[in-house]
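Weekly sync, protein design subgroup
Attendees: M.S., D.O., the rotation student, P.L. (late)

Item 1: inverse folding check
M.S. brought a backbone from last month's batch and wanted to see whether the design step gives back something sensible before we order anything. D.O. pointed out we never logged the input encoding, so this time it goes straight into the notes. Structure tokens as presented (228 positions):
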């Protein structure tokens, strides 16, 4: 379960921070972030996503966000200890970028599954009903999602999120590694070029069209159920 945690309240974390407080100061005890294992082999999503892409994406790019987040939090902890507010503020972009990158990719890997394990099988039940309520059909949803996500300038993500206020599913696009904090993230598709360029070159729409063949709708449905 992803949880909001100190210090970056707007950024979801996937570990537990322990705050030991006294009357005049507090110490933050943290465990290091680590790269999560993939729930399938690097070649399991072929031919939709190649093993080369998956290996580089996971071992190099996601690992870089994990490393960057650990470094940023160590510096932030020191700034807290030193009561250095300027440094605390200056570190927020690094916390957001690397923390968002870690969160987004951890969600993304679980959003995918090999075809032999149900990847690409369409949703049903309450999730499908919620999608149809907003978009009439699953096909209309995918078309609109692809159009909006393909239009992300530079690098970013397309999301299907659950709005707890309106109790509706909605499409949200975000730049860079900004995490989805306005909705409960149900389904995220990475449109940074490192997610597809080795195979699809600059044809982002082709990648978006193909990726649905390995989307793990069971995970999306479970997140939807937990979000309600």
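Designed sequence read out in the meeting:
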């Amino acid at each position: 379960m992803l949880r909001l945690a100190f210090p970056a309240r707007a950024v979801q974390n996937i570990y537990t921070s322990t705050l030991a407080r006294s009357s005049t100061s507090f110490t933050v005890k943290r465990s290091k972030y680590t790269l999560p294992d993939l729930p399938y082999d690097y070649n399991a999503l072929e031919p939709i996503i190649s093993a080369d892409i998956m290996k580089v994406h996971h071992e190099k790019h996601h690992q870089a966000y994990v490393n960057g987040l650990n470094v940023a939090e160590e510096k932030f902890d020191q700034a807290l200890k030193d009561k250095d507010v300027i440094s605390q503020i200056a570190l927020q972009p690094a916390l957001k970028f690397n923390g968002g990158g870690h969160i987004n990719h951890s969600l993304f890997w679980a959003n995918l599954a090999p075809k032999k394990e149900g990847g690409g099988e369409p949703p049903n039940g309450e999730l499908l009903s919620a999608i149809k309520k907003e978009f009439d059909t699953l096909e209309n949803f995918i078309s609109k999602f692809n159009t909006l996500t393909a239009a992300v300038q530079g690098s970013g993500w397309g999301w299907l999120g659950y709005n707890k206020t309106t109790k509706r599913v909605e499409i949200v696009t975000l730049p860079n590694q900004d995490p989805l904090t306005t909705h409960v993230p149900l389904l995220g598709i990475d449109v940074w070029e490192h997610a597809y360029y080795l195979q699809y070159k600059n044809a982002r729409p082709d990648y978006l069209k193909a990726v649905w063949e390995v989307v793990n709708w069971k995970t999306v449905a479970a997140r939807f159920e937990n979000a309600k």
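Discussion: The beta strands are 3-4, 12-13, 18-21, 26-29, 156-163, 168-175, 184-190. The mean pLDDT is 90.
Action: P.L. to compare against the previous round before Friday.
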